[in-house]
Specification:
Blueprint (H helix, E strand, L loop, with lengths): L2 H15 L12 E2 L6 E2 L21 H10 L14 E3 L5 E3 L47 H21 L3 H30 L6 H20 L6 H24 L1 H28 L9 H6 L8 H27 L15
Antiparallel strand pairs: 1-2, 3-4
Amino acid sequence: MSRRAATQISGLLLGQTRGRLLSTTTFRGVITTSGASKIPIPRFTNYEILRTSRVPEVRYWSTMASEVAKEGEQVQAPKLDSNDEKVDDQGGTAIVSSYWGVAPPKISKEDGSPWRWNCFRPWETYKADTSIDVKKHHKADNFMDKFAYWTVQVLKYPTYLFFQRRHMCHAMLLETVAAVPGMVGGMLLHFKSLRRFEHSGGWIKALLEEAENERMHLMTFLELSQPTWYERALVFAVQGVFFNAYFVAYIVSPKLAHRIVGYLEEEAVNSYTEFLIDLEKGLFENKPAPAIAIDYWRLPPNSTLKDVVTVIRADEAHHRDLNHFASDIQCQGHELKEYPAPLGYH
């Protein structure tokens, strides 16, 4: 068959079917083979062909369903299990559709009350070790450590000049940055483990737990204060620059990247210490702790903002030690997988 003849035949076929196969218009007068839906409408398309046809409804089922709803016919909703029901914010019952019968489980607290948080579950909660040394400092002896230390010192001064004593806003910006290194490091270690067909020693999970913990700090502060529009814009700019810079730094030298994070966490500990000092002086209102913080850190019901800042500072001290430890391992010529990651804190 010549190319010209094939082109002509293809054109004829497309001319006859373009109103049906190459568009999302509704089939008119279709009776499905499964019997799940019968839509007797007198017209098929502009062509007076196949007034009643038997075709699979896979391609056009969503379109047909919406068309039926528009014309007032009743479409039977799929049956849901009792697990698909939950209480909404107004106290009513909201139906949550499940995917292939996999419904969200019902979770309760120890006292039998329903668990209200979807961002974390009861087995992810913990009690922070507030006895951890918050004054510990890694002394910069070699060139790499000094470079990491002074890099952090240079970066912190613009932040202090911008926020000054506005600790709540400073903490929110700090957490948007602090949640980046763990995610970047865990992601790169994950890909490394896949490439080399080897275990990570638990460091992937440890770094991802660190990132999630920092994000929970941010979610807690959002319950107490809301950032302004220019602070949100600043987060976009800072996070975009820091993510790419840390990504490159971790690829070039993971031990340098972890050392930088270690010093960043030291500054975070110092920042929260100043926050606590101002709370004790009465410069800030010691508000009641938000419910999300009480459940996440297993705090007493009568906890206050001071208690929340105390446990967050303990978390930052733990992240400080974890990253300095990771850097020390690699500075001694070893790989992270050779030493088990300090899991179980969060």
